[in-house]
Amino acid sequence: MKPKKGPLCVITIGFQTFLMPVTAGMKLVQLLGQAIECEEFYAGTYERRYTAGKQVDVHLATVRDDQVRLPDPEPKQRKVLRLEGPQ
């Protein structure tokens, strides 16, 4: 995974945090600022019903490049050395 060019931010939605470019993060905060949480249920029919809840809890924080650590690349597959025992 290569780091993105440009300034980065983290978006926290509830208990999950996402790393993304600042421009995308600002759009996401703007969209989620209009949303409210809801619960889906079935009231004895096959039709879905929704109960509106509270406004979505979303936060944006800018991040410096030196604060981001990329995951280590996966190790290369090692060849298996088969040893033969006495015959």
Architecture overview:
The protein has 87 residues and is mainly β. The chain is 13% helix and 38% strand. It has one helix and five strands. The strands form two sheets. A three-stranded antiparallel β-sheet has the order 2-1-5, with helices on one face. The model has no long low-confidence stretch (mean pLDDT 86).
What gyration radius follows from the Cα positions, in whole Å? 23 Å
Shape: flat
What order do the SSEs take from the amino end to the carboxyl end, as H and E? EEHEEE
Number of alpha- plus pi-helical segments: 1
Proportion of helical residues = 10-25%
Catalogue the unreliable spans. none
End-to-end Cα distance: 48 Å
Beta-strand proportion: 35-45%
- Class from secondary-structure proportions: mainly beta
Calculate the mean pLDDT score and round it: 86
The strand order across the widest sheet is 2-1-5
Number of beta strands: 5
Biggest beta sheet summary: 3 strands, antiparallel
List the helices and strands and how they pair.
Layout (H helix, E strand, L loop, with lengths): L7 E6 L2 E6 H11 L3 E7 L5 E8 L2 E6 L24
Antiparallel strand pairs: 1-2, 1-5, 3-4
Question: Which labels suit this protein?
Answer:
87 residues; mainly beta; three-stranded antiparallel β-sheet; two-stranded antiparallel sheet; 5 strands
Brief characterization of the structure:
The chain is 13% helix and 38% strand.
